[in-house]
Amino acid sequence: MTTAKSTVQHAASRSPVWQIVAGLGLVFVLAVLVAELDTGIAAWFKGLGVSRNPLEYPLTAAVVGLLANWILRRTKTHAFVKPGVRTELFLKIGLVLLGARVSLGEIMSKGLGGLAQAVIMVCAVFFFTWWLAGKFKLAATLKAVMATAVSICGVSAAIAAAGAVLAKKEEVTYVTALVIITALPMMVLMPWIAQAIGLSPTVAGAWFGGNIDTTAAVVGAGTMFGPEAQAVAAVVKMAQNVFIGVAAFLLALYFVTTVERKGNEKPSAAVIWQRFPKFVIGFVLLSVLASLGVFDADALKALDGLSKWAFTFAFIAIGIDLALGDLRGLGWKPFFVYMAATVFNTVLALGVSTVIFGALGL
Amino acid sequence: MGTSKILKQAVQSEDWLALIIGLALALLTGLGLLINIPWPVFGWLK
To answer: Is A286 on the interface with B (CB under 8 A)?
Structure first.
């Protein structure tokens, strides 16, 4: 894998500069188009009374990328722009910058309950999904991406896990599409169910935050239930986001020392370091700096924007690179595992939030 | 290993390149150089 990867990297670095510039330029222009579309979609949802766009921008970016993919292949220019379409690079830059959004201090200041719920939910849901995916014999990389996405926070976590375990592009796209498609009906249904079974705003908010996989849909569900539920939902979600770095670090270590290990070979510290995804260091570093208050509010907002730009580039690139046959090749098993894990997540989150925010009143 | 060889290796490895670009962007933002740049850099995707 390492040899194939470095061959691709060497090929990219040997490509004429103007081919790289053309690819990068195309991705940039498409990103601006995605931005415009995203603004339009957000305005449409606002008109429906939903304050944040639940149809998250990665899906729009991937669809735009797929359309570009079709046009590029038709016009036989796909190979020409390919050297500038650097999916992995865009993803990893976005992940380094994402670290600034994860501030442990902020979470701690907003309540222990959210952190307690996050620890229980992330561990239980991750290992349940991992176990179930194992039963259905899903690939180790897909298993890692899916378990992280369901247990932590959807798209960002899926991307982080994919970078750490070198997952295939189609695996990331498949899981990302499932995350976004599932989050939409949940955003509408969960506030309605919470109302029907008479949950308090605090417990309802904790339930949304601990269960719905995308941040926008969490906020959307909270908004529909009320301001108190929205605040609790956001805190619980943020507490879960803290685990992105931890999960990426542990997954990278596990894959290097166990999954990618050949025979009885004992990986040396040098081999672990060589294969370890270095961008994780950047993520953790920026997370620590943000926790120490190094960045002010304006800088954090700017870093968040930059991170989203990098992810938009990455999802457009995924769309451009993707061969639809690869997606179909994954079959129905990942879909079933994802849905079963979501049901488990929903039921467990209801129980845990009722105990922590209801009975214990944390 | 010479400096140029180390630099070449860093540029060819996406991991290192992403780390360098990400931290450089964070540094520029932290220093206030990348804040308040008009559209299309931060005017969307809030």
So the answer is: yes
